[in-house]
């Protein structure tokens, strides 16, 4: 399974929904980077993604985007292959 990294904050409802969706698809571990605890990581996230909002989800080297992007990818049938569980 490809590793999953999610830029997040401690109180983000969309981050929680993204985590629930990923776990429901069998992801055992999500590396969460809490940008509200480490402001330097916010800059890193904005540089990597060009976006300011959380969550920002990476699966392997692929930037999926936020919760809406993740959910759309799942509905289109693209999430499981990206996770390596085709």
From TrEMBL:
Coiled-coil segments: none
Keyword terms of this UniProt record: Cytoplasm, Disulfide bond, Electron transport, Redox-active center, Transport
Domain Glutaredoxin positions: 4-64
UniProt GO molecular function: glutathione disulfide oxidoreductase activity; protein-disulfide reductase activity
Matching Pfam families: Glutaredoxin (PF00462)
GO BP term (any one): cell redox homeostasis
Physiological role: Has a glutathione-disulfide oxidoreductase activity in the presence of NADPH and glutathione reductase. Reduces low molecular weight disulfides and proteins.
Family to which the UniProt record says this protein belongs: Belongs to the glutaredoxin family.
Protein name per its UniProtKB record: Glutaredoxin
Protein species of origin: Trinickia soli
Lineage of source species: Bacteria, Pseudomonadati, Pseudomonadota, Betaproteobacteria, Burkholderiales
């Amino acid at each position: 399974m490809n590793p999953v990294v999610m830029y997040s904050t401690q109180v983000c409802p969309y981050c929680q929904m993204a985590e629930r969706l990923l776990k429901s698809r069998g992801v055992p571990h999500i590396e969460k980077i809490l940008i509200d605890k480490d402001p330097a990581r916010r800059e890193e996230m904005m540089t990597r993604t060009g976006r300011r909002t959380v969550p920002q989800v990476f699966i392997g080297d692929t930037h999926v985007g936020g919760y809406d992007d993740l959910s759309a990818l799942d509905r289109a049938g693209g999430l499981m292959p990206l996770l390596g569980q085709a």
